[in-house]
Amino acid sequence: xxxxxxxxxxxxxxxxxxxxxxxFLSFIRxxxxxxxxxxxxxxxxxxxxxxxxxxxxxxxxxxxxxxxxSGKEEFMDKIEKELELIYRYIPKPxxxxxxxxxxxKKISELQVLSLKDMGRxxxxxxxxxxxxxxxxxxxxxxxxxxxxxxxxGI
Length: 154
Hints:
By secondary structure, the protein is mainly alpha-helical. The protein is about 75% helix and about 0% strand.
């Protein structure tokens, strides 16, 4: 399981005295522990772990954007290293082309022709892609595709 891999990497970082990895993996482990407490579970599923990692990824990307706007580049290296660590554990995100293929498949399976059915399409697409795609990006693509269908563009 992913939680065990994070723990093993944490122990490895301790042995190697990698201060940056120790700090970040310790933080991630505490976030996982908090999630387990909230859900009243001893062990989290891989999807729950990935959801925590995605939240941290999103937070770090927002911080990175803020730092680049403020001009405080000295923190950028640390943020980049933390993002690299997160990318080790989360599945590779789907490309836009792969997402569009899945969306097209679901639209044809459901025989959807209008934006009114966006919720049905979203439910099916998100069930298939899981955590490999950002739900906002999926929503934008589905909306564009259904808008084109309504206008007779496809």
